[in-house]
Structure formats: C-alpha cells, structure tokens
C-alpha cells in the first residue's frame, strides 16, 4: 500500500487488519451479549439467526476476539508502556477535552487515554474469556460448580459492560479527534495530525527518518 | 400355600389388599411388601394414617419397608420360627391371648393321642433311615363316635394348649436372641406390640411372602405366625389375617388350577400308586368330621372330582370306568417338583422339557446344575414373549454363561408368545380375585398365544396317535375338545368350562328344574357326583354364570369403605372376600369388633358386607366351627399329620448355617427335608464360607423380566450385592467396587453396595455377617450383563413344598478388580 | 367445604381426578386452551382395561392404543397407566407397572419361532408348522418309548416321566386350564409352575 | 404457547411487561411429597419417563441406589437415598424425590434471557417452553435447587413440567398418579398445606418432634412441597437446601445490574454527544500542518502537496 506524500504511517496494514477483526468481533459480541443480557435487547438475537444461534456463536466470537486481541497486544504493548509524560498529559486533560492543545505536554505514539483503553481491554478481554469459558454451557457446563458459574456470569456481565463503556470512549475519541479514523482505515495521518496530537512521536519519526509507525531503532530494545 | 391349609383349611391369603387398612398393627416379616408389592403396601400406609396403626418390620436388612416402619428389628436369616415361637411363649406366659376365640375357634382344647412326644429336636415316629416321620401319633384321642376328645379348661396335659405351652417353653427371650441375633429389648418390644392385638377389637395383620417360604422350614415359618394369629383371635376379622403376598400375577391361579406335579384343579390331588382303585382313592378323601356338627366341606370331594372328569373326558368318563380314574397319572413319589426334575435331568432320566413363560436357568437354584441338566435333554421347548436365558442356555456368553455349544446336543425351540396386553383372559390375584382383562393390540411379528401353541402341539400329537397308534392313547383321543375353533379355543370358552355346566336337567328336591342341560352353573353347590354336572375347576364355579362373566364386573362400591368391594370382579370361593369370616363374630354371632363387622347373626341368617364363609342360615347355637374346610371345624394350633416335619413348628437351622442348633445340636436342620446326594455334596461349611447370604427382589425389577424393559434397566442397571459397613471394612471393600461372592456352587463377580442397612448380628455370642444378593440379572435384556443370584444358591427345598432355600445359605466374599473370563 | 380428615383423604385419593383437579389450573380457560399447553397425547387413543402382568396385587391398568382398529391401520400401544377405578391400586402403579410399555415393546420381545440344532451355536428361524410338527414328533416318540403303564406291582399308573413341563406364572387361568388338560392327557407328572420362586 | 391468553400466565421469562392480573389466582396447584410415606420405589421416576417419553442410557451401579446418578435432560425426577443415623443411633433411610420445586418466585425464570422460554402459568406451574429456549444455561444458575439440565443433543433446558399437559387436561401429574403409597399428592396449594398439617400432627405423635412442611419462604414458597420428619434439618435429605433463595449474585445480575448497565452505556453515548455539541471535533489546524511540514522539510523529508488537501476527511 502506498501512502500520500508527506503523510505519516500510523498503523501498519497487519495492525489495521488485526484491529478491525477485533473491532468486528467486539461489535458482534456486544450485540449478541446484550441480547442475552436484557430482554429489551433480545431482538438483537435476530441479527444472528435467533436465540439459539446467538447463544452458540457468541462464545466462539469471543475466542476469536481473544486471539485477535492478543495480536494487538503483541503489536502495541511497547507503545502502551506508561511514561512520565502521560501523567502530565492527564493533568492537562481538562485542556484536551476542550480541544485546547496549548500547555498539553508533547506525547509519544499513544496518549494516556489511548493507553487506558488498551490496558483496560488487555485486562478485560482475557477476563471475559475466562469467565466466558466457565459459563460456556456446551463444553464446560459441568466443569465448575454452579456457584462458581453464578459468580462468573455476574463478572462476565459487569466486565462486558465495562468493556462496552471503554469501547464507547474509544469510538468517540476516534470520531472526536478528526483524522484518527483514517489512521485506522487507510493507516496514515497527516504530519499536522501527528504534530498536533503526538508531537513526541512525530519528532522521533522525523529524527530517525522513519515513515512510521515506529521510529527506526539501531540497537535492540532502543529506539 | 401348603402352610396355611394345614392350619386353616385353605392355602391362600385370607383377607383383601384393601382390608389391610383396618389393621391396628401390621407385621411385615418374611417379606418386603413395600418393595415387592408397592401398590398393595399402600394399604399399610393407609392403616397408619387412617387407623393409627403401627408398622413393625423384622428383617435381616433394613429394607424399604423398614424405612417407613414404626419399629424395626434385625433377625438372622432362617431363624423366624425361633423368633415367633418366642412370641407365642410371651403371649401364653403373659396371658395375652384372646381366650374365648382360642377356646371356640382353635383346636387348643382337643386332646392329643397318647404316644405323641417331642424330644431332642425330634417328634415321635421318626425313621432315621428314611429321614421321614411315621405320623400316626400326631393325632387326637377319639371318643366312641370317632370325635376328638376335648378339655375346655386346657388342664389336660395332652390338650393341645398344654402341649403347646410345653413346646414353646424353651423359646425364652434369651434363647430367641441367642438364635436370631435380635437384641432382647427389641424382641420384647415387638412382643408387647403384638400382644396388644389380643384385645377382641384389635387386629394385627401379617404380611409375608417368599422371605418365609424360601427356607427348608418355609411352611413351618408361616405356620408359626398362623398360630400366633389364632391365639390373638386375628383370623377372619377385618384388618387381620395371614396375608400371603403372592409374587406373580397369576401364580394363585396356576395353583388353583392345579399346575403342580401332584395337583388337580381346585386343590384336588392326583392319585398315588398306593391308591390302586378309585375306591382306595376316595377312601383317603372322605374327610369325616372329627367334631360333632362340623361342615368339613371336603366331604363333597367326589362331586368335585366327578364333575372335573366329566369336564375333561365328557361321555368317556362314566360310572362304569370309575369316571376315567385310570386315565389320570399316578404318583410314585410325593412330588415331581422342579428340583426333582433337574435332578432327573442331571441323571439322564429326562429327554424333553417345555418351559412356558418360565426361565429356570435364572430362577432356579444352582445355575450350573440347571445348565448341566438342560444340556442332557434331547429337546427343550421354550414359550415366552421374551428372549430368556433358558432358551439360550447353550450359548456361550462368557463367564456369565460359559456354555460349550458344540458339546450340547439339545434341540431347542424358542417359540414367541403374546403377552398380557395381547390377549383376553383372567388372572387370580393374591386375594383370590378372578379379574378379566382385554386385548389391547396384536402381538408383534409371528408371536402366538400359549393357547394356540398348546393346542397346536395337542392336535399334532392326537393326529399322530390316530394315524400311527401308540402307547395308551385313550386320554388323548378322548379329551374333550369341542371348541368353536379347535386350533385356537377362546379364553371365554375355557372360562365357562372351568365354571361348569349342567350335562342334564338338574332338579331341586321338589323336582323343579333348576338348570337345564347345557346351562352354566351358578356355583359349586350345584355340582353332583352322578355325572350330570361338569366343572373344570370347582372353586371357580360361579365365575361365569348365566348372568355373564362375573370376573369382568367393575362395580367398585365398597360398603362402609371397609375394603371389601364385593361387586368388583369375582373371588373364589363363592365370591367370599375374607376367608373364615364367621370368626369375625363371637360364638353368639356378634362381631368381636363392632366398629368393623364383616358378618353377624341377625337371628335368622348371617348378614354383612361379605358373603359368609359359612352356612348362610346356620345358627350360632349349632356350634359349627368357622374353619369349614377342616374336619375339626376349628383352626389348628396342632397340625396333626398335615406337615412332614411335625405338628408344632420347631427351629431348625438352614442346611447351610453359620451356627449350631443350640436347641438340639444333634438335629441341626430339618430332619424331614429331602436332599439329593449330589446336592448335599455341594453344601458349604462355615469355615470356608463364613457369611450368611440371602437373595431377594429389588423394587425396581420384577424377577428376570424387567431387565428387558429399558426404564427398569435404567432404574437399577447392574448386578450388585449389599454388604454391611463392618464387613466391608474388614474385607477392604470400597463403595461401588468389584467383589467376588462365592458359594460352594459357584461365584458371581459384581459391584458392592456398602451399607449401614445391614449390621452384624451377635448369634450365640459370635458376630455374624449377612450379605444381600439381589437376584435380577442375567445375560439377555437391556440391563448390564450379570450372573444371577442363583449361581450361588443351594439346591434344596422346603420339606413340604420343595420351595428352594434362597433366603439363607453360606458364601464368602472378596474384593477383586473386575469381571474375569 | 369442611375438610375433615377422612373426607380429605377421600378427596385427595379416590376422587382426585374428578372433583379436585377440574377446578385447578386451566379450568377457566377451556379445553382448547388447555391443549395449547402441550399436546395431550391420549386425546384420541383407544383405552383398554387390563391387569398388570407382574406381581399378584393385580393392579388394574389402562392400555392406550394408537389407531381406532380400522382395517387398514395396525394399532400400537403408546401408553399404559393405572386404572383409577380399581379398588386395590386406585390408579397407582409401582416402578415395574409404570414401565409396562417398555416390556410390551422390549427390543428382546420374540417375533419369530426359532430352532437351534444339536451342537449348533446359533438359532435359525423356522416356520410355526415345522416347529410344532417337530415338537410333536419328538414328544410322541419319547412318550411311546418311555410311558409307564403299570408299575412294578402291576398297578395301572399311566405316567410319563421323561418329558416334563414348567407352566408359567403370568399366563391366564384359561391358558393354565388348557395347559393342564393337554399335559395331563399325555400322562405328564413332571409338571410344575413358578409358585415357589 | 402463542394461543394461551396472557391471563393464563403469572410470569414469562425475559419480558419487560408483567401480565395483567385479570384473573384471581386462588386455584394454584401444589404437589406435596410426603417423604415420611415414601418407600423409594421409583414409580414416580418410571411414570415420568414413560409419560414424557424419556429414556436415558442404561448406566452402571455406582455404589448408590440413586439411578441415574443425577438429574439430566432425560431424568426430570430422581429418588435420592440417604442412610442417616439419627442422634439416638437408629438408622433412618431418608428417601427424597428430587425434581423441580416450581417456586413461586422461580430463579430459573428470573435468570432466563429468552422471552417466553420459561413461563409460570396461573396455576403456579413453572414450565420450560422448548421452542423458545436458547440453551444458554442461565436457568441452571438461577435455580436455587440445582434442577434444570441442558441437553447436549438439542441444546435446550429440561426439567419437570409438573405434567402441565396432564394438568391442563384435568389429570394429576404422572408421578402423582403412579405413587403407590400416596407419598405424592396433588391438589390446590391450600389443600396440600392443610393436609401437610395433618401429617405433621401424626408424625409428631409418632415421635418425630421436628416434623414439618418444607415450603421455603426464600423463594416465596413452592408448588412442590415436602413433608419432612426432620424439617429442622432439610439438608440431611441429600442436600435439600436449608434456606433456599435465588442467589444474591443472580439477584444482582438480573436486578440492579440491568438498569445500571444500560444506564451507564446510555450515559456514555450521551456524554459523547454532549461533548460533541459543546466542544466539537478536535481538528488539525493549518498551523499544525505548517509546523509539521516545517519540521519535515528541515530533515529533507517530503511534505504534503498543498494542492491536495488530505486534512479534510470525514470520520
């Protein structure tokens, strides 16, 4: 894939494919999960061919999502390591919220908000898988005690809600911060976008003459 | 039931199932009614709830019956006579008998002949060589008119009561506990509960079954309780009685119709070799009353016999040929029972065998011997709805049936028959009700009815005798066979045959015609000995009259809700529901228990909710006894010569026993029992086989049938034995693990059920363990393959009836890894 | 209604099906609605009265059959339950009786006459005629050869001991009577039933 | 199911509207299992299998009379046997018919996510309607008595229906009819409760001081009740719950969490929307592009073609 001149590659093609697989799974899981969670939303099961199909397919999508998200973890965890400037960025969150960039510290490839999303999901996805396995009637219905299953079911629901909330933040941020969406569809951002939102990352790329998404490193483990 | 007849005159359950609800005390001993007869047992529960009754269970195991009992006591298998003799002693010592009843309705007051005696375990007249008694001293002292002498004060030392007191004196509570292993306090508590029912308005019912019969002293087990019931005045009354709970749907009927080696329909008996002529035969069947005025109904024997022969042979049975007396086979031995049959087979004395709806390979003792016997036959015919083990005895099924097919030369015919749902007919239940049933669907495949098959065999045989001639064809050629379809007689026609009909116009004393020739009879009172009547089974006479099929009646009306339902179906004899019901009233004819009368004297006749088992207008003042079949007219505490091993019951150990007979070590087991030499060689000793085993049914299964039914196979899928926790611990047997149980005759490998419900008993100071062996498994059907309990059981029967001793024998047990080849 | 103890037992026992239940459940909804709950499988089944084949309590049973007996249909038993009119069982059945359907339809119900030749390790199917002819032949030959007309003392005894018969325990009295006639007309003495076990 | 009128139900799973109370529900039914009369014959089990056309696999003997070992989609009722030695040292064989209790407040129905898969009829019977069942197993978690079982064959949940088909045809349930000793009775809940009272009096007179009725209030009572000799210790009867109630975990999950969850999701969406309206999108400004290009140029990297605006994009 070629990128327009002067743009910065933000997400590599494999990463984007990985992301969208994850996203698709997440949406399907949300829809199917919610249909089994609240009677108001049971109609959503029609999207999957009815309740039986919804019940049958949901855990399998969950497994795919887990595997897919593991891929994301592999690809993104380095950029999600917590750094000192993240705290300062958070301190300036009131400015970020109202689109004021002045006084917001320069940050790397990902800001604290993005890292929050990443790590939340990195925690929630395996936990959802684990609790999901416990309540996966077909294979593991007799593997654990019913009391365990009850707790698993509650945790699964609560964590799913949490994941959905995180997801809302994630999606809204993508809508709100213009240019973000393209970074995940076409993979690139404009230099201005990089300058505005991830200046430190931008500087590193320029410094190492990297087209993105990561600075070129010469030594192992260092950029 | 060859144990009740010697006491009361008829061998059948005395009361109805529903009548159990009238009891004040229900004693289940020698049976497990809740498991074997759940729907009959409901009336025990009803008695508890409606009548405040108590339920007492005496059993080696804490059974499902015990689980709803008010009081339970354990007992060592095979010691019931000791227990019950102890009860009799308690009742006599504590004056807890219904004196007036005992005096008037039992033979307590009759004087026994001089010469009668009992010493060291033997009654007078024992022949050590033959192993039999000469029973002439077991009788009454007669006066000049041939009537038994009487002492109503019971002070005469040879009055039955005095002799009984003396006989049971040895059965002290200490002795009972020593023999039975029942703790004394429990035994005494049960005695107290039983004693309470000696009050005239209180009744105890005894429910028993094969737990009593399947012993070498089986008949005497029952007799002991029958005596208890007589002493308490509990026979003939509502909520009382000796209730023999028969095991199969029509085993009462088959017995009534005389399908036993020495029997004819209606409890007549086949002639013996010694009864050379018809006169000889009739001489021993005169039944002359032994007390003045008594009914002694068997005096009519000749009427029943002649009518039967007319039914069998029609015009060919005449006064001139003694009603074809010689056409009946004569017996050279008392019985050709099943144990005897397999003994004969094993000795090559039999060539053919027909098993109709019976599976001896599983159901009879010592399966190895059964298989060896069948292997020596030339041909075996099985008629059954199901694929029985017997029909496949020749097939190698591995350790459960290790047969060498190639070496077995028996021709086997497996004939498929209809089942209950596919035929019309009647069955006689335990309470003697003849109930008609109707066909619901056709049989599967080519299955045919037993009637069609038996007719088919008969016709072919008769045809062969007609065309080829042969030995003594007379009874075959002259057998009455005037059915509409000779190849497949209707059950309706056969039922009418049994009821009987007039062969000529019958007149009453005034000369008026009561029955025209060919008309169906109203009852056995119309039978005559001159050949003008015929009846295939006199006790059934009345079951299908000109008014129609009485067995099909469906009016469940039950006066006073007392459990009689007199219009439902039809009961023999003469639709009487409670036998000996005259004894429900006192000598003057007033009910002992005014709350639950059955019949009573109204000054002119007997009235009540049941048909009187008595002359309907016989005045109380005539002193006719209530036991109308007995020559004395009363119930027998002293059985005279009716039992082979003695007029009073005595405790004898089972043939295989862990204990020495502490009463008389020289006479360990029943001295009159019949044991074949090879079978005796197969008895084990306590040193090699230290544990007592007992076999039984589980409620989930019926014999060897329901393992063919999926639901029942699910409910109890696999063979197991029940072992007490103490023994299991001693032997290192884990719950649900595999064990091998061995007797001298074979072994079974099955699962172990380690239970609190069997506890070791202290017998004569020594701990004695009991192992329970449910019987239902085999190698055909839906349930898991098993050996069958009778791999272990000994081939010896009750001395009177040859009922096998399944309830007490010796085994050893060990833990194993699993079944082996 | 004054429910005394006795009265109550009667209510919940005998007349349960008629007096109590009709007031319960869907009484107000009408029959059509009742059927909507779940199809009631006996609606058009034929009911036949019979007696349980097992123990000797002799519980009354109702056999329900599919098919109305029309010529072109073969009826099949679909359900068996207790006869509520029967004075002993009053509609109840034990675990064996409740599963009678499975014995009627047992996979091991026999369908065809079979014969096993000497030394053979299998059954083969035969016709009824062949089987009965062969049985009669074997029986006649044995009877003619081994019949005892007179004993050693010269008494007429007319007995046949080398072929015996075991009669059933669940066949009807009518079958039993016919069996008695046939067996005894041959002079059979080794003749017994299942009364003891 | 569709042609039952809504008044014939008290409850329907996964609906958001409560059926109207158009009818008075005096005639609620109940099955009374009198454990003290039960002989453990399993007639109820056999009758249940026969009537409902259920046949499990033939199992093995596993050191217990409980056969099959547990409830399953083919076994809707099961006798459970306990050999209990009472404090006096006497043996009691406690035999309890296990199966659906038909709770007045059914945990299964509360937990069920599939509309109409579990219903409670006006007579109190809790019934599983297979065609609506999705096989999720939530009813298993909802049940305080561990009753429903999911079939591996058709992925639907099964349990005792209290023979709703028979009851609808004015017949008693199959197990009730079969029970030889009358240990299972059926009638109106009031009659059954009264009768249980009679039984308790009788039992107390026979020395069972703690005899009583098991009609647990934790689930608002049940339509299957037990008479127990030892009502003070239900758990000795093969683990009959002493004080059953719907698990608080399930209560919370099916209670507070539902509105809380939807509320918070809605809040999230609304918050985003409000933010969008108030703060608007965060867009890259021309200054940003200029600064960035400047930096790029300083390193000799190409910059964007100014004639083609790539900053304009729609999200």
CATH homologous superfamily designation of chain A: Transmembrane di-heme cytochromes, Chain C
- Largest sheet of chain D, described in full? 4 strands, mixed
Q: Low-confidence parts of chain A, pLDDT < 50 over ≥5 residues?
A: none
Mean pLDDT figure of chain A: 93
Q: What is the structural class of chain D?
A: alpha+beta
Helix fraction bin of chain A: 55-70%
Extended strand count of chain A: 2
Dominant shape of chain D: elongated
> In total, how many beta strands of chain D?
11
Instruction: Please write the string of helix (H) and strand (E) elements of chain D.
Output: EEHEEHEEHEEHHEHEEHHH
Secondary structural class of chain A: mainly alpha
Q: In which range does the helix fraction of chain D lie? A: 25-40%
Q: Which CATH architecture of the largest domain in chain D is right?
A: 2-Layer Sandwich
General form of chain A: elongated
Strand order of the largest sheet of chain D: 9-2-11-10
Give the C-alpha Rg of chain A: 20 Å
Q: Summarize the main sheet of chain A.
A: 2 strands, antiparallel
Question: What percentage of the residues of chain D does DSSP assign to strands (E)?
Answer: 15-25%
CATH class of chain A: Mainly Alpha
As a whole number of angstroms, the C-alpha radius of gyration of chain D is 30 Å
Can you describe this structure?
- The complex is a heterotetramer of chains A (223), B (821), C (197) and D (315).
- With 223 residues, chain A is mainly α.
- Chain A contains 10 helices and 2 strands; from the N terminus they run βααααααααβαα.
- Chain A has one domain (13-187): Fumarate Reductase Cytochrome B subunit, CATH 1.20.950.
- A two-stranded antiparallel ribbon of chain A has the order 1-2.
- The two termini of chain A are 25 Å apart.
- Chain B has 821 residues and is α/β, with parallel strands linked by helices.
- Chain B contains 22 helices and 33 strands.
- In chain B, the strands form 12 sheets. Chain B has a 6-stranded mixed barrel. In chain B, strands 3-2-1-8-9 form a 5-stranded parallel β-sheet, with helices on both faces. In chain B, strands 12-13-14 form a 3-stranded parallel β-sheet, with no helix packed on it.
- The mean pLDDT of chain B is 97.
- Chain C is of the alpha+beta class.
- Chain C has 4 domains: 1-40, no CATH class; 42-109, Phosphorylase Kinase, domain 1; 111-143, no CATH class; 147-197, no CATH class.
- Chain C contains 6 helices and 9 strands.
- In chain C, the strands form 4 sheets. Chain C has a 3-stranded antiparallel β-sheet.
- In chain C, strand 4 and strand 5 (124-125) form a beta hairpin.
- Residues 1-33 of chain C have low confidence and may be disordered.
- Chain D is an alpha+beta fold and 315 residues long.
- Chain D has 2 domains: 6-255, Alpha-Beta Plaits, CATH 3.30.70.20; 258-298, no CATH class.
- Chain D contains 9 helices and 11 strands.
- In chain D, the strands form 4 sheets. Chain D has a 4-stranded mixed β-sheet. A 3-stranded antiparallel β-sheet of chain D has the order 1-5-6, with no helix packed on it. A two-stranded antiparallel ribbon of chain D has the order 3-4.
- In chain D, a hairpin with a 6-residue loop joins strand 7 (149-150) and strand 8.
- Chains in contact: A-D, B-C, B-D, C-D.
- The B-D interface holds B 34-35, 38-39, 41-42, 45-46, 48-49, 62, 64-68, 70, 72, 699-700, 710-720, 735-737, 750-757, 782-784 and D 36-43, 45-46, 49-50, 55-65, 67-68, 83, 85, 91-93, 95, 180-183, 199, 202, 206.
């Amino acid at each position: 894939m070629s990128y327009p001149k002067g743009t910065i590659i933000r997400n590599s093609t494999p990463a984007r494919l990985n992301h969208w697989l994850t996203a698709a799974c997440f949406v399907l899981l949300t829809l199917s999960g919610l249909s089994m969670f609240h009677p108001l939303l049971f109609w959503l099961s029609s999207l999957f061919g009815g309740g039986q199909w919804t019940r049958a397919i949901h855990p399998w999508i969950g497994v795919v999502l887990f595997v897919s998200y593991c891929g994301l973890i592999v690809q993104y965890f380095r950029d999600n390591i917590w750094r000192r400037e993240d705290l300062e960025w958070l301190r300036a969150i009131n400015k970020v919220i109202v689109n004021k960039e002045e006084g917001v510290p320069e940050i790397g490839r990902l800001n604290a908000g993005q890292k929050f999303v990443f790590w939340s999901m990195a925690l929630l996805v395996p936990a959802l898988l684990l609790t999901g396995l416990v309540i996966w009637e077909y294979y593991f219905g007799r593997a654990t005690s019913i009391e365990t299953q009850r707790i698993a079911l509650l945790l699964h629901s609560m964590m799913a809600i949490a994941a959905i909330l995180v997801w809302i933040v994630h999606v809204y941020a993508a809508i709100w911060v213009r240019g973000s969406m393209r970074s995940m569809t076409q993979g690139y951002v404009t230099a201005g976008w990089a300058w505005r939102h991830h200046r430190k990352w931008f500087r590193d790329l320029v410094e190492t003459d990297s087209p993105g998404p990561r600075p070129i490193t010469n030594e192992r483990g260092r950029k | 039931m060859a144990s009740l007849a010697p006491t009361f005159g008829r061998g059948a359950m005395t009361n109805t199932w529903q009548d159990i609800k009238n009891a004040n005390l229900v004693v289940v001993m020698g049976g497990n009614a809740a498991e074997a007869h759940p729907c009959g047992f409901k009336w025990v529960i009803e008695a508890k709830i409606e009548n405040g009754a108590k339920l007492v269970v005496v059993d080696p195991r804490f059974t499902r019956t015990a689980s709803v009992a008010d009081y339970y006591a354990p007992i060592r298998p095979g010691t019931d006579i000791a227990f019950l003799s102890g009860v009799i002693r308690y009742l006599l010592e504590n004056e807890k008998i219904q004196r007036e009843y005992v005096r008037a309705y039992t033979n307590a007051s009759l004087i026994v002949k001089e010469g009668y005696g009992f010493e060291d375990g033997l009654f007078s007249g024992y022949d050590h060589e033959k192993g039999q008694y000469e029973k002439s001293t077991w009788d009454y002292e007669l006066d000049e008119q041939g009537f038994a002498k009487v002492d109503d004060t019971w002070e005469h030392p040879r009055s039955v009561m005095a002799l009984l007191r003396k006989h049971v004196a040895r059965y002290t509570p200490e002795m009972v506990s020593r023999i039975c292993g029942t703790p004394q306090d429990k035994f005494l508590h049960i005695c107290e509960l039983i004693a309470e029912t000696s009050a005239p308005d209180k009744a105890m019912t005894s429910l028993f079954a094969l737990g009593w019969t399947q012993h070498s002293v089986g008949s005497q087990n029952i007799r002991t309780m029958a005596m208890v019931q007589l002493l308490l005045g509990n026979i003939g009354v509502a909520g009382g009685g000796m209730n023999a709970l028969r095991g199969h749907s029509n085993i009462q009927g088959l017995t009534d119709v005389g399908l036993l080696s020495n029997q004819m329909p209606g409890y007549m008996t086949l002639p013996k070799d010694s009864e050379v002529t018809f006169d000889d035969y009739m001489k021993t069947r005169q039944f002359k009353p032994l007390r003045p005025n008594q009914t002694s109904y068997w005096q009519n024997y000749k009427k029943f016999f002649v009518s039967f022969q007319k039914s069998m042979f029609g015009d060919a049975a005449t006064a001139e040929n003694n009603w074809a007396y010689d056409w009946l086979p004569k017996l050279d031995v008392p019985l050709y029972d099943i144990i005897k049959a397999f003994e004969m087979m094993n000795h090559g004395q039999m060539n053919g065998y027909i098993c109709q709806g019976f599976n001896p390979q599983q159901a009879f003792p010592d399966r190895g011997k059964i298989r060896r016997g069948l292997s020596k036959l030339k041909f075996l015919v099985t008629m059954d709805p199901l694929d029985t083990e017997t029909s496949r005895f020749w097939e190698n099924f591995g350790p459960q049936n290790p047969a060498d097919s190639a070496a077995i030369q028996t021709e086997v015919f497996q004939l498929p028959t209809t089942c209950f749902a596919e035929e019309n007919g009647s069955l006689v239940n335990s309470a003697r009700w003849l109930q008609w049933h109707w066909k619901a669907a056709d049989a599967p495949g080519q299955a045919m009815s037993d009637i069609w098959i038996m007719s088919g065999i008969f016709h072919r045989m008769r045809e062969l005798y007609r065309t080829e001639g042969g030995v003594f064809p007379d009874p075959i050629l002259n057998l009455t066979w005037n059915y509409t379809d000779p190849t497949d007689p209707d059950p309706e026609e056969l039922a009418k045959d049994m009821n009987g009909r007039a062969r000529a116009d019958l007149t009453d004393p005034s000369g008026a015609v009561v029955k025209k020739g060919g008309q169906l009879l109203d009852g056995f009172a119309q039978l005559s000995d001159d050949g003008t009547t015929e009846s295939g089974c006199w006790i059934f006479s009345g079951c299908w009259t000109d008014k129609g099929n009485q067995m099909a009646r469906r009016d469940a009306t039950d006066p006073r809700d007392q459990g009689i339902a007199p219009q439902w179906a039809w009961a023999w004899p003469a639709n009487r529901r409670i036998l000996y019901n005259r004894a429900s009233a006192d000598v003057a004819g007033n009910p002992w228990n005014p709350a639950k009368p059955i019949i009573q004297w109204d000054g002119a006749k007997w009235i009540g909710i049941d048909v009187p088992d008595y002359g309907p207008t016989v005045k109380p003042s005539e002193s006719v006894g209530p036991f109308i079949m007995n020559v004395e007219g009363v119930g027998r505490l002293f059985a005279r010569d009716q039992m082979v091993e003695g007029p009073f019951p005595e405790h004898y150990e089972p043939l295989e026993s862990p204990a020495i007979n502490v009463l008389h070590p020289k006479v360990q087991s029943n001295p009159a029992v019949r044991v074949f030499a090879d079978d005796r060689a197969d008895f084990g000793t306590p040193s090699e086989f230290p544990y007592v085993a007992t076999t039984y049914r589980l409620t989930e299964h019926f014999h060897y049938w329901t393992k063919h039914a999926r639901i029942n196979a699910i409910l109890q899928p696999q063979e197991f034995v029940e072992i007490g926790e103490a023994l299991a611990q001693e032997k290192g047997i884990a719950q649900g693990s595999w064990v091998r149980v061995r007797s001298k005759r074979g072994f079974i490998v099955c699962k172990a059920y380690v239970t609190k419900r069997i506890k070791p008993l202290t017998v004569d100071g020594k701990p004695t363990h009991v192992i329970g062996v449910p019987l239902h498994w085999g190698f055909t059907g839906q349930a898991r393959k098993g050996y069958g309990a009778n791999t272990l059981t000994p081939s010896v029967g009750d001395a009177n009836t040859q009922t096998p001793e399944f309830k007490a024998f010796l085994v050893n047990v060990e833990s194993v890894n699993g079944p082996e080849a | 209604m004054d429910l005394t103890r006795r009265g109550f037992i009667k209510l919940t026992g005998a007349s349960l099906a008629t007096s109590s239940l009709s007031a319960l459940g869907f009484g107000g909804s009408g029959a059509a609605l009742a059927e909507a709950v779940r199809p009631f499988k006996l609606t058009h089944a034929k009911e036949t009265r019979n007696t349980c084949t097992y123990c000797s309590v002799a519980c009354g049973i109702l056999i329900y059959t599919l098919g109305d007996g029309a010529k072109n249909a073969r009826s099949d038993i679909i359900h068996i339950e207790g006869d509520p009119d029967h004075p002993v069982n009053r509609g109840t059945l034990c675990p064996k009786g409740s599963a009678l359907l499975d014995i009627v339809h047992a996979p091991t119900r026999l369908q065809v006459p079979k014969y096993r030749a000497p030394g053979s390790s299998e059954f083969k199917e035969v016709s009824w005629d062949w089987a009965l002819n062969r049985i009669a032949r074997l029986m006649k030959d044995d009877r003619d050869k081994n019949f005892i007309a007179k004993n050693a003392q010269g008494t007429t005894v007319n007995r046949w001991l080398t072929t015996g018969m075991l009669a059933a325990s669940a066949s009807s009295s009518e079958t039993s009577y016919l069996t008695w006639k046939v067996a005894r007309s041959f002079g059979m003495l080794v003749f017994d039933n299942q009364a003891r076990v | 199911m569709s042609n039952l009128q809504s008044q014939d139900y008290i409850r329907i799973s996964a609906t958001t509207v409560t059926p109207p109370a158009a009818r008075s529900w005096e005639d609620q039914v109940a099955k009374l299992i009198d454990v003290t009369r039960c002989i453990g014959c399993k007639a109820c089990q056999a009758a249940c299998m026969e009537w409902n056309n259920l046949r499990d696999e033939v199992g093995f003997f596993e050191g217990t009379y409980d056969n099959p070992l547990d409830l399953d989609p083919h076994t809707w009722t099961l006798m459970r046997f306990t050999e209990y030695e009472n404090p006096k040292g006497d043996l009691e064989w406690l035999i309890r018919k296990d199966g659906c209790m038909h709770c007045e407040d059914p945990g299964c129905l509360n937990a069920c996510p599939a509309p109409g898969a579990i219903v409670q009829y006006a007579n109190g019977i809790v019934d599983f309607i297979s065609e609506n069942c999705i096989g999720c197993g939530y009813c298993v978690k909802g049940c305080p008595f561990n009753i429903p079982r999911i079939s591996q064959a058709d992925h639907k949940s099964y349990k005792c229906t209290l023979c709703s088909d028979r009851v609808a045809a004015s017949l008693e349930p199959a197990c009730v009819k079969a029970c030889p000793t009358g240990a299972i009775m059926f009638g109106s809940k009031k009659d059954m409760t009264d009768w249980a009272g009679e039984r308790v009096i009788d039992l107390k007179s026979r020395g069972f001081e703690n005899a009583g009725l098991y009609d647990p209030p934790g689930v608002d009572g049940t339509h299957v009740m037990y008479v127990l000799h030892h009502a003070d210790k239900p758990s000795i009867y093969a683990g009959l719950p002493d004080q059953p109630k719907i698990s608080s975990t399930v209560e919370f999950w099916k209670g507070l969490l539902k509105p809380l969850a939807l509320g918070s999701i809605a809040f999230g969406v609304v918050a985003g929307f409000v933010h969008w309206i108030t703060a608007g999108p965060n867009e890259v400004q021309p200054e940003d592009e200029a600064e960035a290009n400047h930096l790029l140029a300083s390193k000799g990297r190409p910059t964007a073609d100014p004639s083609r605006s790539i900053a304009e994009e729609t999200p």
